[in-house]
């Protein structure tokens, strides 16, 4: 098949704009509001098997790894199973211990990333059970796994991943809901998550409608040599992916730190020349996050807050507001403005948006 940008300036913005439809396809036929759970036939696990796992280990590279971090949080929150994400590349080089009561999940948009495939093969060689969260049907990783969830996000052409990242996070929300409901997640909480999932496409549309104002902020922030991205817990994987996106497409240096770690080192970098993007969900950590922003402002660092409620200007000079969903699902929405920020920074700096220097869409060699 051949694809074109369908009137968009680049594939990247086309794919960012396609996210409401991509998420609808990821959800399609999988949300069961009556029984407050998710149907994922491809997992090939019955309820007893799904209950038996004591741990979940998620593997992927690049944006797939960061979406796996969101997935690990969702699984811990909704199913209360300890879950952790690790770069597939690191995992496979350290002679990993494969445990019978751990469920392994490999994440890949292309399904062809060599490091991720090698990790899957090593787990299988040692008798472990691996599921895939993969976009490309019939790809090498999908074929190698024991089951999994296809994203159905549609083809992703631009090197930097956007809609596959978001659809992966949504797929993990479905997996977490499913595992939650075979563990201790109540029907009421299950229904709350079902309703939240169904609200996502419309809310993503509301965020995309702010593209004009985000583009203006991006053109200003792109003039800096670097940027700091911070977030706590639910905001932290979002901050990591936001920094990655900015680096990839605009070549502006970006560091991501947990907001709580700033004072243990990187606060030394903060000053007028290094602005911060802060991901601040409206959850039980919002006050702690605002205190951190106050510390940055006290050192004359400019702050752009991405959150749900406009902050007092003493905490942030600029803000991008996203609609509120359920606390567990809010990170999915908070990531969208950061994609637009990276895209418009790259446009302002006249970068090769869809094919950044030195990068490939999928790395199929070691
Ligand atoms: C490459 C791309 C990244 C991508 C990563 C994993 O490095 O440049 O954008 O996140 O591979 O790709 P995958 O297809 O496995 O998700």
From TrEMBL:
Homodimer. Residues 45-185, 217-356 form the SIS domain. One of its GO terms (cellular component) is cytosol. The gene is glmS. Its EC number is 2.6.1.16. Coiled coil: none annotated. It comes from Streptacidiphilus jiangxiensis. Keywords: Aminotransferase, Cytoplasm, Glutamine amidotransferase, Repeat, Transferase. One of its GO terms (biological process) is fructose 6-phosphate metabolic process. Transmembrane segments: none annotated. This is Glutamine--fructose-6-phosphate aminotransferase [isomerizing]. Catalyzes the first step in hexosamine metabolism, converting fructose-6P into glucosamine-6P using glutamine as a nitrogen source. It catalyses: D-fructose 6-phosphate + L-glutamine = D-glucosamine 6-phosphate + L-glutamate. Its main location: cytoplasm. It is an enzyme of class 2 (transferase). The active site is at 361 (for fru-6p isomerization activity). GO terms for molecular function: carbohydrate derivative binding; glutamine-fructose-6-phosphate transaminase (isomerizing) activity. Signal peptide: none annotated. It is found in: Cytoplasm. It comes from the Bacteria.
């Amino acid at each position: 098949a051949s694809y074109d940008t369908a009137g968009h300036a680049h594939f990247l913005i086309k794919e960012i704009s396609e996210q409401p439809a991509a998420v609808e396809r990821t959800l399609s036929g999988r949300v069961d509001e009556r029984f407050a759970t998710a149907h994922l036939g491809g997992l090939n696990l019955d309820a007893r098997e799904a209950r038996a796992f004591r741990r979940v280990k998620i593997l992927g590279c690049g944006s797939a790894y960061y979406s796996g971090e969101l997935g690990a949080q969702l699984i811990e929150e909704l199913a209360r199973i300890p879950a952790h994400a690790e770069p597939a590349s690191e995992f496979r080089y350290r002679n990993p211990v494969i445990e019978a009561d751990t469920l392994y999940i490999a994440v890949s948009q292309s399904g062809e990333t060599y490091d991720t495939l090698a990790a899957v093969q090593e787990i299988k060689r040692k008798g472990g059970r691996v599921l895939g969260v993969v976009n490309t049907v019939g790809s090498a990783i999908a074929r190698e796994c024991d089951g999994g969830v296809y994203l159905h996000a549609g083809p992703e052409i631009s090197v930097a991943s956007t809609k596959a990242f978001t659809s992966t996070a949504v797929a993990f929300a479905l997996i977490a809901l499913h595992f939650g409901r075979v563990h201790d997640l109540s029907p009421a909480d299950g229904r709350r998550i079902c309703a939240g999932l169904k609200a996502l496409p419309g809310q993503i549309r509301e965020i995309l409608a702010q593209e004009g104002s985000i583009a203006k902020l991006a053109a200003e922030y792109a003039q800096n040599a670097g940027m700091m991205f911070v977030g706590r817990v639910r905001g932290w994987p979002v901050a990591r992916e936001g920094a990655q996106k900015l680096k990839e497409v605009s070549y502006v240096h970006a560091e991501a730190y947990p907001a709580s770690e700033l004072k243990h080192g990187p606060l030394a970098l903060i000053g007028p020349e290094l602005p911060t993007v802060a991901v601040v969900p409206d959850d039980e950590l919002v006050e702690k996050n605002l205190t951190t922003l106050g510390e940055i402002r006290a050192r004359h660092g400019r702050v752009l807050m991405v959150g749900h409620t406009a902050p007092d200007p003493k905490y942030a000079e600029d803000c991008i507001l996203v609609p509120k969903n359920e606390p567990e699902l809010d990170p999915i929405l908070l990531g969208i403005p950061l994609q637009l920020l990276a895209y418009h920074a790259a446009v302002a700096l006249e970068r090769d948006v869809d094919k950044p220097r030195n990068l490939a869409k999928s790395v199929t060699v070691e």
